[in-house]
Amino acid sequence: MDFSLSPKLVDLQQRTRAFIAEQVIPLENDARQGAHGPAEELRDELVARARRAGLLTPHASPELGGMGLSHVEKAIVFEEAGYSPLGPVALNIHAPDEGNIHLMEAVATEAQKARWLQPLVAGHTRSCFAMTEPAPGAGADPAMLQTMAVKDGDDYLISGTKWFITGAEGARFAIIMAKMEDGSATMFLADMDQPGIRLERLMDSLDACFTGGHGVLHFDRLRVPANDVLGEIGKGFRYAQVRLAPARLTHCMRWLGQARRANDVALAYVRRRQAFGKPLGEHEGVGFMLADNELDLHTSRLSIWHTAWALDQGSRGNFESSVSKVFVSEAVWRVVDRCVQMLGGQGVTSETVVMRIFRDMRAFRIYDGPSEVHRWSIARKILSEKH
Amino acid sequence: MDFSLSPKLVDLQQRTRAFIAEQVIPLENDARQGAHGPAEELRDELVARARRAGLLTPHASPELGGMGLSHVEKAIVFEEAGYSPLGPVALNIHAPDEGNIHLMEAVATEAQKARWLQPLVAGHTRSCFAMTEPAPGAGADPAMLQTMAVKDGDDYLISGTKWFITGAEGARFAIIMAKMEDGSATMFLADMDQPGIRLERLMDSLDACFTGGHGVLHFDRLRVPANDVLGEIGKGFRYAQVRLAPARLTHCMRWLGQARRANDVALAYVRRRQAFGKPLGEHEGVGFMLADNELDLHTSRLSIWHTAWALDQGSRGNFESSVSKVFVSEAVWRVVDRCVQMLGGQGVTSETVVMRIFRDMRAFRIYDGPSEVHRWSIARKILSEKH
Amino acid sequence: MDFSLSPKLVDLQQRTRAFIAEQVIPLENDARQGAHGPAEELRDELVARARRAGLLTPHASPELGGMGLSHVEKAIVFEEAGYSPLGPVALNIHAPDEGNIHLMEAVATEAQKARWLQPLVAGHTRSCFAMTEPAPGAGADPAMLQTMAVKDGDDYLISGTKWFITGAEGARFAIIMAKMEDGSATMFLADMDQPGIRLERLMDSLDACFTGGHGVLHFDRLRVPANDVLGEIGKGFRYAQVRLAPARLTHCMRWLGQARRANDVALAYVRRRQAFGKPLGEHEGVGFMLADNELDLHTSRLSIWHTAWALDQGSRGNFESSVSKVFVSEAVWRVVDRCVQMLGGQGVTSETVVMRIFRDMRAFRIYDGPSEVHRWSIARKILSEKH
Amino acid sequence: MDFSLSPKLVDLQQRTRAFIAEQVIPLENDARQGAHGPAEELRDELVARARRAGLLTPHASPELGGMGLSHVEKAIVFEEAGYSPLGPVALNIHAPDEGNIHLMEAVATEAQKARWLQPLVAGHTRSCFAMTEPAPGAGADPAMLQTMAVKDGDDYLISGTKWFITGAEGARFAIIMAKMEDGSATMFLADMDQPGIRLERLMDSLDACFTGGHGVLHFDRLRVPANDVLGEIGKGFRYAQVRLAPARLTHCMRWLGQARRANDVALAYVRRRQAFGKPLGEHEGVGFMLADNELDLHTSRLSIWHTAWALDQGSRGNFESSVSKVFVSEAVWRVVDRCVQMLGGQGVTSETVVMRIFRDMRAFRIYDGPSEVHRWSIARKILSEKH
């Protein structure tokens, strides 16, 4: 057993930390941000900075221009990147691109990689992942998929509606999950500028950290050639799991960084701000919040590290990543909520970055499987001893 | 002991409920709302509707044109009004005007009432309450007041900075809390259009339910004649308590209405939306959230009713209102957070009104005394048996 | 709406309070108590004291010698009685007798009342309620009843096993729940000294507040004449509900008294005991526990009062009593757990009465329907709007 | 980073697991146990079994006959031992002996080791640690020490009262913490059979897992020669920290084992027991408890491992062990409380081992520093950045 980091990893951690502090945090109040996230132009500047710093898309394989980070290494680097809401954008490790890169490295053809993955890894394009649907379609229960792919000669015609499609506006291409006539599911790759795809609108969401926001997409007999099927026909649900287990965990890593940031901001405040004759932090009621934040941050980090290590050992990690997802999403939420409380009125204004983290983070207890779905999944595995 | 409502009160409850459903909720998506709350024009329309419905400013005394509602009656009516985020604006029972009206009825002179209170009760003007200050001034600890009032002939000259001043932009007048040379505090009335008052900026806040938002105010040798002192010199802290005990409780009433609304929206959704083979609500994990919401809403209502009744019996209600404030602010927050969770992705978007309630409500655990200050106040009273 | 108590009720409250303080608490360390509760001899002495004080079996009807207390009146008196673990024994208002009296008043024949109920109300005998069964029988799910009643001439022959039968040892008679050949259930009355009834053993339980402990009973072709059927054939499940809705609530009342007692003991301690330079109670972390206890006690009381009032108005009270049962059982447990914590090492020893309350109370979250069953019952009623 | 265990450690883990299953659990219902713990005779038999299995006192150094386990190795072995309430007794790793052995290895003289430590490590004797005092003495705040050691020639005369002295009855010797005339504190070694030591009584406690229970001790001019001072004069408080940081952690290890046991018992039950048409475990409300137990057990284990690793790296570990102590003591309590709930009525009886674990465990949130003291200690270190 060993909790230490290799000198190489410590170096990468420190470089990332310095990059975030010096190159990213100063842009946090940049005006090129709105209700639907950082504008493309701001994203381009952030990506350019990371490229110069040699930190762009570090999780991609070296062949594609990344660092080929292991899951444990990602745990370290992504937490550092998450220390700023703009960090994951800068490093090109944000959802959904991060997970899409991971999935495509695993199952895309060389031609698909050259066409779609390479520019994505290079930070020149963005992508989206079109799975979630409005009622009565696929939400927490992916089996309820309504979007259909019908064979038409050598091609497929895809029709259906998707929503909560993160990054849809401005994405170069989409990975589309659709149902086959036999009830199985398949993933398809498609450029977003095709006539069969229509972005109906952007949704107004509590978060504002994703470039491109969250869109509602309509597919109307979108024609996809057989060559653009991602992986094998009928393996969509399996690939969704391949994508999701690590994708959930990278969310945990990034949000842990955000929670640590919020805690640092709150800590600085309660050290300084006086009330009732002494600094806020010296009131036990506030001190207990600091202690509880420490407990939550520490155990979240350990849970992430453990699951990352299990993935690195070759585990599929579904059980472990469910455990980490539930635990971390709830623990970091408690942290950020306490930070808001410690900051008092300022916690609910843009006077500090904490309100922004509070807004951005709430959805994490919902997406990639709400806590309730993961708890039930964990329970069933425990009951059947299949983990 | 009797938990029933008088027929007259039931009638008022039903009338308010119908008014909110028919006249207010249809305006919830009106475009005249922004980051700093409903625009004046929208407010005017809402107030006009309440006036026509005979429901405007119902807590003011009949002499001033209100209904002279008791605290218990307010508990019923304000909860109904709170069922829409626009309801309290419509009925003219929103903070800070509601509490200002209450305070001024108690301590203002007839001349002050004619000049400032009458138009306020009539819904023609708005007011603000200038107490909170940036560090190192008065926040959770009012004794840290920095804004000074210096005697100058028969007048007072007030200088200092205030922030989080709700409704400051557009307010006709302010009640200003300032420190005297002897260390005591006094409240002053002042029109907002005077040269000594400057609105520096509006703060970006998580909530957006208050017309006029939250402003930063500077007072620079603002001249206030002795006639415009509110109540007696040196009694500012006492008056703040007179204002706060019931004001905290009316917050509880309104937020209870909002939480009930959120719960109704979530309930309708989980009855309808299918996942894993049955409606969401028939999953125990979701059903338990419905049950917990019921527990929280029910006990919150009982706590409010009890404190309202105690105030009606003549209690100063400081202990009771602290108990209600902590309990209700935390219970309704749990309710709304569960509603977000039940709604899944839609919970964190403007697809329903719940996200708006979630945003607006978070500050309630902070303002009018954060939970920590009230817990400590309750504890000290228990330790000294002075309640 | 009115939260005041009538002068008559205040008088009864004060008399009960004084009785508990003067006549019952001094016996709390009486040696005649063991792992299975207060011995019969101690019970007899306590009952005699209550009889002399005119406080025995106050919930029974005046015709039977009680005071005919309404549910609201019970809320006041039972809380006071619960202030000592021996109080409910003294007043003859403990489970299961209290609920059995309530049920038999409602459905027993005059002959049954004369034979069994009258001596029970007079405090001369005890009874038990034989419903719960070991797996695969009736536990949280009453429909799984295994004990069978088979018609044999004019009689019934009952066979089966029951456990967790509170007060079985020493009870004069039992109310037995058994399944009929048509799948319905019926309640039977039977003296405990009959050959067909065998008390296998007493169970070692965490609590020790019930005279007679909790027994395992075997019925082997127990012969019950038709005259000893309680109420009508086939209405067992309905009667169980008639018994349970108020019985759950009287548990809440008594446990609220115990929680108040624990809190008073802890409060006295933290006022007195010094640590780190001041009394424990003046540390915020401890003060917050006092405040949270106040919140939990206060809202528990309001919930009980409201449900009691609803029952007095004629409501069946199933929904309300489920709400109160879940809320109060969890709230008072939090209170007692905090009291243990405030008392430090002494909290987990017999140095104070709190450990005893802690031990006795844990089962309350389980019996008369575990929290999980009530939450689900509440949820289903909300989903179907049938409450 | 590496979460794997060495093959040697896995072997030791498996051997310990098998020993507990085969040699210890069968004795759990042995009659030689009472309100004050396993009798000496039962302890002797357990120790003899561990000796034969080569598992006795594994944390002691090889020179003294132990295995010289590192902290990480202890984490693995002690958790396994804790799987039975009798396991720590068998392996001679229970409090207070475990911590006393650790401390004496660090600071005792060779003569002291030969006289007191060697027989303790060999399992032939027991010891106690006399620090805690009744009010107004040392409890959570060690600085309030009242027991005095006064120089008398070359000896010291110790007078004072201690309570909650675990294992006092039957202990061969005590480590006594006493205050010097200069206000510092010193530790003394003393045989328990001396005239100056009187065991007043055993305390009735909720737990019953420590041989010798918890005693009240009086020292009346107990004469201790200078040779029997443990370590240096005046370093008592420092040694208490040396003893406590790892001692807290070994409590975490053992209790984690107990919580895992409780969870296994509850899991087996909810797999088997039917209610409302399916096994209990397949009800989401119960399944969620299984999932939450998994989260709590998993993160507790990770926290223990991390602190153990930090201690092995040479850290003093005060901050880390406070974090683990608070987190684990609260997490395992939640686990055991949920197990009680899942077991229903059986959870609060001796039908399973869970009630016993529930009773034994409650004190863990109090001893070795209540949660509140550790939270405050953690907060102060965070505020001062000294960790």
UniProtKB/TrEMBL annotation, chains A, B, C, D:
<dbReference type="InterPro" id="IPR009100">
    <property type="entry name" value="AcylCoA_DH/oxidase_NM_dom_sf"/>
</dbReference>
<dbReference type="Pfam" id="PF00441">
    <property type="entry name" value="Acyl-CoA_dh_1"/>
</dbReference>
<dbReference type="InterPro" id="IPR006091">
    <property type="entry name" value="Acyl-CoA_Oxase/DH_mid-dom"/>
</dbReference>
<feature type="domain" description="Acyl-CoA oxidase/dehydrogenase middle">
    <location>
        <begin position="128"/>
        <end position="206"/>
    </location>
</feature>
<keyword id="KW-0560">Oxidoreductase</keyword>
<dbReference type="InterPro" id="IPR046373">
    <property type="entry name" value="Acyl-CoA_Oxase/DH_mid-dom_sf"/>
</dbReference>
<dbReference type="InterPro" id="IPR006089">
    <property type="entry name" value="Acyl-CoA_DH_CS"/>
</dbReference>
<dbReference type="GO" id="GO:0003995">
    <property type="term" value="F:acyl-CoA dehydrogenase activity"/>
</dbReference>
<feature type="domain" description="Acyl-CoA dehydrogenase/oxidase C-terminal">
    <location>
        <begin position="234"/>
        <end position="382"/>
    </location>
</feature>
<dbReference type="InterPro" id="IPR037069">
    <property type="entry name" value="AcylCoA_DH/ox_N_sf"/>
</dbReference>
<comment type="subunit">
    <text>Homodimer.</text>
</comment>
<keyword id="KW-0274">FAD</keyword>
<dbReference type="InterPro" id="IPR009075">
    <property type="entry name" value="AcylCo_DH/oxidase_C"/>
</dbReference>
<dbReference type="InterPro" id="IPR013786">
    <property type="entry name" value="AcylCoA_DH/ox_N"/>
</dbReference>
<keyword id="KW-0285">Flavoprotein</keyword>
<dbReference type="Pfam" id="PF02770">
    <property type="entry name" value="Acyl-CoA_dh_M"/>
</dbReference>
<feature type="domain" description="Acyl-CoA dehydrogenase/oxidase N-terminal">
    <location>
        <begin position="11"/>
        <end position="123"/>
    </location>
</feature>
<dbReference type="Pfam" id="PF02771">
    <property type="entry name" value="Acyl-CoA_dh_N"/>
</dbReference>
<dbReference type="GO" id="GO:0050660">
    <property type="term" value="F:flavin adenine dinucleotide binding"/>
</dbReference>
<dbReference type="InterPro" id="IPR036250">
    <property type="entry name" value="AcylCo_DH-like_C"/>
</dbReference>
<dbReference type="InterPro" id="IPR050741">
    <property type="entry name" value="Acyl-CoA_dehydrogenase"/>
</dbReference>
<dbReference type="GO" id="GO:0033539">
    <property type="term" value="P:fatty acid beta-oxidation using acyl-CoA dehydrogenase"/>
</dbReference>
<comment type="similarity">
    <text>Belongs to the acyl-CoA dehydrogenase family.</text>
</comment>
<dbReference type="GO" id="GO:0005737">
    <property type="term" value="C:cytoplasm"/>
</dbReference>
<protein>
    <submittedName>
        <fullName>Acyl-CoA dehydrogenase</fullName>
    </submittedName>
</protein>
